Amino acid sequence: MSSPRLDIELSPGPLAEAGSPDPWAAGDTVRGWLRVDLPADSRMRGISIELKWQTEGRGTVDECVVGKVSWVETQLPASPPFELPFELHIPANGPVSYHGNLLSIVWTLRANIDIPWAIDVGESREITVLPRGAATH
Questions:
Q1: In this structure, what DSSP letter does residue 79 have?
Q2: Domain 5-130: which CATH class?
Q3: Of 10, 1, 7, 11, whose CA–CA distance to 113 is shortest?
Q4: Which residue has the higher pLDDT, 116 or 102?
Q5: What does the alpha-carbon distance between residue 94 and residue 92 come to, in Å, rounded to a whole number?
Q6: What is the mean pLDDT of the chain?
């Protein structure tokens, strides 16, 4: 029996540089697809992907899910492998990505396959969000 696979693939954002889909600006839309491959005898209740930011470092952790796309079992193809397209909007008011000594603000895409009576399959991917109008060069 093969092991479950879930991959997050991203279309290049408007500020993307060669070889990387990053970065995006506040107010942009992150587009991509989930590649799903489960053993033929696997059952799943649904699949979801969310876009969130969170603080890391000293002090209280803060986080906010700013968008989520979900597919329930009846909306999924009959058998894997398959791809599910998604679009998630980054709010225009940010916050933007930041990595400092005491505090960091990290944006993450988190995908999950809800498998009944088993450990769910998940995948995360960090993205970079810049202020609107920021140059990447």
A1: S
A2: mainly beta
A3: 7
A4: 102
A5: 6
A6: 85
